Amino acid sequence: MVLDRKAVVLLSGGLDSATALYIAAEEGFNIHALSFRYGQQHTLELESASAVAKAAVVADHVIISVDTRLFEGSALTGSAPVPEKRSPDEMADMIPATYVPARNTVFLAMALAYAEVIGARDIFIGVNSMDYSGYPDCRPEFISAFQSLAELATKEAVEGNPARIHAPLLNLTKAEIIRRGLELGIDYSLTHSCYNPDTEGRACGRCDACILRLKGFSGNGIQDPAAYQPEMNNGL
Predict the structure, then answer these.
(1) CATH number of the domain at 6-189, out of 3.10.450.30, 3.40.50.620, 3.20.20.100, 3.40.50.150?
(2) What CA–CA distance (Å, rounded) separates 9 from 14?
(3) pTM check: above 0.90
């Protein structure tokens, strides 16, 4: 590994961001993971982010606290109910209550600043536009637009060294993402995806994130190693 090739990786603690991190590491980058405390109801994901970062032996893992008022209005940050048992068509056609206003725009902007500070030219984000919940900031058009912004917004960019936005999972299904991660040796039991876990941290199996995650593991013929509530199975 070439240790002076730095990359900032947005790490939520979920399955996708963990896979993006391991892909960046495989490509020879020295990983600087970036996570956010933004008022999410279930901070289990931050514990998972720390566990993933430790397992991957990253160079640094920074957790940034953001004023919670910035992201009010989402089921993930407030008391609104989390949608359950949505069909694939509903996920593709309807933006759910779990959408967090402009979250990826804000997080990528912070990653862009952090990258310039530490001398990194590469930023990884685990967005996916195949098996996903219909969020507008997970689409190829969004990543392309942010790349254009990154080429204009910083001193490094003006001087000819713009940051590169990597979205290696963008056009993969959840099953393909998991297959890639397993090839890289990821321990997916460390990750947390559920939008509505119980008080013991067990996944609900009914929210969009759980449905897509279970579908991905089932597509690989294996059980999800995550802990689920007693009435749920792990995908097989």
Answers:
(1) 3.40.50.620
(2) 13
(3) yes
